[in-house]
Design a protein that fits this description.
alpha+beta, 2 domains, 5-stranded mixed beta sheet
Length: 238
């Protein structure tokens, strides 16, 4: 009880002192109180603000230094538009990937074309190949980014996806699509095949296929590709 009385008295004298303080001292006191209130903000809120600012800085400071031009080819021709009739359990197409946008190549030899255009660049070993595929089926929108070969059943039961490394194969030998167990740092996705699965006829939109090249800094905080080394085609369907 004595301590409470003392506290009340102390509060009274403090209030009394404030009333009779000079104007300059009052201003200084009010500023001090405001500073105390601000410093008492929730640290988690401050941390969230700082994190958001850092993310914005990272996005704004991103610089795409990837020099590679990339294209999708069928035989020796750059694919600019493509059409397929939706039929269950049938290939759509196999597209080859080369580091060029030339409309017509001199031949359709995969290894030759790959090495020819790969060697027009310097110091690009760090760059890899990825894909983005999107379409609509059964009232749902599908949009997926692919950087590994475990994508075969990603769009089941509408489309199967098969990736190939044609570059690390012996000439004249038969080989199949890449398995996840065969994937390593030296793998090159030089071809992609789209195959219509057993509900392909339920697809209700064009199929958008993009190929892109990337290194580790070409993705945002959501792991989505943000670079400029990308080539996109639309596969119309009916």
């Amino acid at each position: 009880m004595i301590m409470k009385i003392l506290n009340y008295k102390s509060s009274f004298f403090i209030l009394y002192d404030i009333i009779y303080l000079g104007e300059d001292m009052k201003k200084m006191l009010f500023i001090f109180i405001i500073v105390l209130l601000i410093s008492g903000c929730d640290k988690s809120e401050v941390s969230q603000i700082n994190l958001q600012e850092q993310l914005e800085i990272n996005v704004n400071s991103y610089k795409d230094d990837n020099p590679i031009k990339v294209g999708l080819y069928e035989n020796e021709y750059l694919v600019e538009e493509y059409h397929t009739k939706l039929t269950n359990m049938k290939d759509i197409a196999v597209f080859n990937i080369y580091y060029t946008n030339e409309k017509i190549l001199e031949n359709n030899y995969i290894k030759y074309n790959w090495n020819k255009y790969y060697n027009t660049y310097d110091n690009i070993d760090k760059y890899k190949i990825g894909f983005i595929i999107s379409f609509e089926a059964d009232g749902k929108h599908y949009n997926e980014q692919i950087t590994t070969p475990d994508c075969e059943f990603l769009f089941e039961p509408y489309i199967y996806i098969y990736l190939y490394d044609d570059i690390h194969q012996e000439d004249g030998t038969w080989y199949s699509h890449l398995l996840p167990s065969e994937f390593n740092d030296n793998t090159i996705f030089s071809s992609i095949k789209l195959f219509m699965a057993d509900k392909a006829t339920y697809i209700t939109s064009p199929i958008t296929l993009s190929v892109f090249t990337y290194d580790e800094d070409d993705f945002n905080q959501d792991n989505k590709y943000i670079g400029n080394s990308i080539y996109t085609i639309e596969i119309t369907t009916n």
